[in-house]
Specification:
Layout (H helix, E strand, L loop, with lengths): L2 H28 L15 E6 L3 E15 L2 E4 L5 E6 L8 E2 L4 E5 L2 H38 L11 H27 L1 E3 L4 E6 L6 E2 L6 E5 L2 E9 L22 E8 L2 E12 L9 E9 L18 E18 L8 E5 L5 E5 L1 E5 L3 E6 L6 E3 L13 E4 H5 L33 H8 L8 H16 L3 H4 L34
Parallel strand pairs: 1-21
Antiparallel strand pairs: 1-20, 2-11, 2-15, 3-10, 4-6, 4-9, 5-8, 6-7, 8-10, 11-14, 12-13, 12-15, 13-14, 15-19, 16-17, 16-20, 18-19
Helix pairs in contact: 1-5, 2-3
């Protein structure tokens, strides 16, 4: 065997191995399964809508307040003396009727005064009778004399008038003593209830001092504050000079007592005489008749004084109003309307009134339009949505949702087949020449020389730019081979690099 083919084989065999490994890796790269890429499909959000219907709405105004008695009084004795008796109802919270004796003051002194008064009346009447008799005698004696007109003193008229005045004074004293005797029994001026008491049996009371506080139970009042803008919704009976008392709107009083809600019916009867200068509130007075009467519910408590209550005042009736949930309102005066293409559109509307639960729209919507009532974080005009109609869903008919847009087919990756060397190369030399881009028109020696130069460039000093260095974790400390068969610190720092 000649020397030249052996040298060629020594050069070409490693090259063939390298080229074959590269071709195999490149073939594996081309034969890998294609990664399917899909354009993300953004499904439109699902929203609930409410169909626009125009109705007549009776407005109500809410307020709250504390129950107060319409009539309350201080019980004050008109005479002095020790208390000798109190009624069983004379206790805090006790009920009484008009004319009931609540407590009794010792009447002895006043009984004696009545007896004395009667005696004085009798004496005065006796003196009057005597004076009248003497006056009659004097008149007759003067007539018998016939000397002209007699004076009043001659006829004893002043003495008669004095006796008559004495009788009147004695009778007045007797009446006063009898009245004081009646005042020994302190009676209730009306049907009511004892709010507080300050005396009891054995205690001395003075004329004019308060002995108890009472209030009437025929009706109760609640002082309700209202903002002045709320007065536009109710017909409050405003007070004008020279006008009679007007009947106001109905009011529903409610309160939670002993874990249950209870309701009473009343009416607004008047407004107070001034507006609060600090809060700018107008106070109206609601009246509930017979608050302590048992109702149809045996568990309902009386509408007692001091109870905190909620009030719903019936207001005016407005026609052609759209009532929407509060969630439908966007900003101050906008709503979202879903058009025929299931796209959201902003719409300016005229708000009649908005509460914590609902919005009343006066203008800006048409009958049958769909208003979005679902909360949305981000909304753009013309955004596509999927619609669920609340009215249809309640009737058991839900419209089909809008179909999402079709997904776009991902493009097929182009295989770099043209970059591959020809698969039908006949000889190893031709493969090597094609791999190293050697001109095939040159002589074999020139081709071998070019291949050697290219191989030396690849495996020589230029290899450091093409092959990454081994990581330090693959080398052992102290010159021992690492887990991947690399050299230790005491070996050739260039690793397995050959000279070509």
């Amino acid at each position: 065997m000649s020397r030249l083919p052996i040298q060629i084989l020594k050069v070409l065999l490693p090259l063939v191995v390298v080229v074959g490994a590269g071709l195999a890796a490149y073939g594996m790269f081309l034969s890998r399964p294609a990664v399917e890429t899909q354009t993300p499909v953004i499904e439109p959000p699902t929203v609930r809508v409410r169909r626009v219907t125009f109705d007549s709405v009776t407005l109500t105004v809410s307020s709250q307040g504390t129950v107060q008695p319409r009539t309350s009084s201080q019980l004050v004795p008109e005479i002095s003396g020790p208390v000798i008796e109190v009624a069983p109802s004379f206790a805090v919270g006790g009920f009484f009727e008009a004319g009931d004796v609540l407590l009794r003051i010792d009447p002895y002194d006043y009984q004696q005064a009545v007896i004395t008064g009667r005696s004085q009346v009798a004496q005065a009447e006796l003196r009057l009778a005597q004076e009248e008799a003497e006056a009659e005698v004097a008149r007759r004696e003067w007539q018998d004399l016939g000397r002209g007109d007699a004076s009043r003193l001659t006829l004893r008229q002043p003495q008669v008038e004095d006796a008559r005045a004495s009788v009147a004074a004695a009778e007045a004293a007797l009446d006063r003593a009898a009245r004081d005797l009646e005042r020994a029994d302190i009676k209730a001026p009306y049907a009511g209830r004892v709010q507080s008491k300050d005396v009891d049996v054995g205690q001395f009371v003075n004329k004019g001092n308060t002995v108890a506080r009472i209030y009437a139970i025929d009706s109760a009042e609640i002082r309700l504050p209202l903002p002045d803008e709320e007065l536009a919704y109710v017909d409050v009976p405003l007070s004008y000079r020279g006008t009679s008392r007007q009947s106001g709107p109905r009011v529903t009083i409610s309160s939670n007592f002993a874990g249950r809600d209870h309701v009473w019916q009343g009416r607004i009867v008047r407004t107070e005489g001034e507006i609060d200068p600090v809060s700018r509130m107008v106070h109206v007075i609601a009246e509930v008749n017979d608050p302590y009467a048992p109702g149809n519910d045996p568990l309902r408590p009386p509408l007692s004084a001091g109870m905190f209550v909620e009030a719903e005042i019936s207001g005016r009736t407005i026609n052609d109003v759209v009532v929407l949930p509060w969630a439908a309102l966007r900003g101050r005066n906008q709503v979202l309307v879903v058009d025929n293409g299931n796209r959201l559109r902003f719409r300016d509307v005229e708000i009649l009134r908005s509460t914590s639960d609902e919005v009343m729209v006066r203008a800006g919507l048409a009958e049958g339009e769909a208003v979005c009532v679902s909360p949305l974080d981000t909304v753009t005009d013309g955004m596509l949505v999927r619609v669920v109609d609340d009215d249809l869903r309640m009737a058991g008919r839900v419209p089909a949702p809008v179909s999402p847009p079709a997904a776009v087919e991902p493009p097929t990756p182009r295989a770099a087949v043209a970059d591959l060397p020809p698969a039908n190369t006949e000889t190893v030399a031709e493969r090597a020449a094609a791999a190293f881009d050697v001109d095939s028109t040159q002589s074999r020696d020139d081709q071998l020389a070019a291949i050697r130069r290219e191989l030396a460039r690849l495996t020589g000093a230029d290899r450091s730019a093409a092959t990454p260095p081994e990581p330090r974790r693959d080398r052992a400390v102290g010159g021992r081979p690492g887990p991947r068969g690399g050299r230790g610190r005491g070996d050739n720092p260039r690793g397995n690099r050959g000279a070509g």
